[in-house]
Every structure is written in structure tokens, then in C-alpha cells.
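Trying the structure run again after the queue cleared.
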Amino acid sequence: MKLYNYWRSSSSWRVRIALNFKGLDYEYIPVHLVKDGGEQRLDWFAQKNPAKQVPLLEVDGIALSQSMAILDYLEQRHPDPTLLPEDAYMRAHAIQLAEIINSGTQPLQNLLVIQKFKAQGWDAKLWCQEAIIAGLAAFEATLEHNGDFCVGQSPTWADLCLIPQLYNARRFEVDVSQWEKISAIEERALAHPAFAAAHPDKQPDAQ
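Done. C-alpha cells:
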């Protein structure tokens, strides 16, 4: 199993947490998203993933990109321990929360957006701050917090998306302490071995 990823990529971080949580060994292959214009744009990687994005997981003779698709594949192939609740509503709630970050927040402040803003001479930092604040406020308001994690007593996809987004929030100088429920979840999640081992600062390509 090979994971092509970047230490500070929040989408890559989600997959690292899932692999750690499920006890799956993998080969870490760094793809630098900034160096020399971005290694994800080089021919060798573009042939593997035409979208030129990380993460990319090679496993069982196939290649999968997009973090949510990878999480779903891992859940189907390695259901124990699970990262989704059995109850239909709670499962949907976990995915709902995950998508608030995955679809409604992270894409608005990712590297491509920042580069485009800077190229136009626009204030990328202010844009990213506004996008992150709106997304995390919606997450907190949607959260039905009744356990140690976003949905119950065990991590779900919601936590896998939330924790990297909080890291990004701090990079853009957003005060995350204003969201009490989210902050409490983060503290517990970062103490979990699967989350701790996946932290960007502990990756071999960390800078």
C-alpha cells in the first residue's frame, strides 16, 4: 500500500488518520505541492492522477484519489474498527459534518485558490479567514455533540475532516477557541494515537 501525499495537505492528513486508526501499514511517498511549481504537476505523478492532487492511494493493483473516496474504500475493505456509526441517521450526520469541511470549507482556502488570489493581487488571507470562519461556525452549529468525538464516543469521518481544518484555521490566524464544542473535540482527538501519528509535524517531509 502506497500513499502519495504532502505533510501539510489536510486531505492527505485525513487518510493518514484512517490508515493509522485501522492499523494498516503503508509506504509514505511525499509529493511536494510547492517546490519547483509543485511535484503534483510532474509527468510521473500526473500519469498516476490526472487531477494532479494528493492524496493518491495505490493498493490492490488500483489507484484511488480524492480523500473521501479513499476513506470509503478503506471502510469497505477494512470495516473493523469502523469510522462510521452503524445507525443510519448518525452515519449520515457524520458524513454531513465531514462534507461541511470537505465540500464547503477546505476547497475555498486550498493552495490553488491562494495562488490564484495572489496572482490577481487580491487579499488571499482575508478570503481564507472568511471561508474558514463560516465553515467552522456551520460545523459547530450543526454538531449534535454527545460524546468525546463529533458523533459519539469514537472517531468518524467528521473528526478526520475537522482536525486538519483546525490546523489550517490557525495557519490563517483564525481564533478557534470561539467554538467551544469543536475545541473540546480537538483536544481529545489530538491525544488519540491515530491522530497524533498523522500530524503534519511528524511526517518525513515536514518542514
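Residues 124-142 form the longest helix (19 residues). Worth checking whether this holds up in the mutant runs.
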